[in-house]
Amino acid sequence: MSHVLPDLPYGYDALEPYISRQIMELHHKKHHQTYVTALNAAEAAYAKASTPRERIALQAALKFNGGGHINHSLFWKNLAPSAAEGKGPGGALKAGALKSAIEASFGSLDNLKKQFNAATLGIQGSGWGWLGYNSSTKRLEITTTANQDPLLTLVPIIGVDIWEHAFYLQYLNVKADYLNAIWSVINFDEAEQRLVEASK
Predict the structure, then answer these.
(1) What is the Cα–Cα distance from 156 to 168, expressed in whole angstroms?
(2) Per-residue pLDDT tens digits for 88-146
């Protein structure tokens, strides 16, 4: 079955002023669509491949485009219109399992933001910053992945795209400003649902 570009759960302008309509349209319609198209092509080629050599040659395309599709599908749900702008729940962390887990692992939401942004800014080139759940320790951890590599070592709770296409048209080369702004549209309700599911 072919993969399809998922619809956004909000309008392209819903995350303004933190993420512009122009960025959202290009990011979703062009970049994510490219990963979906290329993943479908790679999977079709893999299905037709008749030798191990042919299948091995397709691994990079499967990983890159498959990761791009997985990561972006999670990313769109990770975002919500801003509570500070009176548009939705974005940026608002309510009392509950996620807030308790953040405080247990990092002391406070502000500490999480500082540590997350520092780790994500440390990525060389393109990649993703993650808040993940460690099923062994039952704690939240911050980590990063390069390029479009999906998070496989932890259960993804929050993922932030640090590829230039996610911010450059609005924030230019100032990644720190983008990372500070994105917390105003993080969907903590969605993140909490992921944590509760992962904790079962």
Answers:
(1) 25
(2) 999 999 999 999 999 999 999 999 999 999 999 999 999 999 999 999 999 999 999 99
In 71-200, beta strands by DSSP E: 127-134, 139-146, 155-161
For 44-105, the three-class secondary structure string (H helix, E strand, C coil) is HHHHHCCCHHHHHHCHHHHHHHHHHHHHHHHHHHCECCECCCCCCCECCCCCCHHHHHHHHH
Distance CA 168, CA 200 (A): 39
Q: Read off the pTM.
A: 0.95
Q: How many alpha carbons lie under 13 Å from residue 137 in its C-beta half-sphere?
A: 12
| Cβ pair 143, 160 in contact under 8 A | no
Measured distance CA(35)–CA(199) in Å, rounded: 30
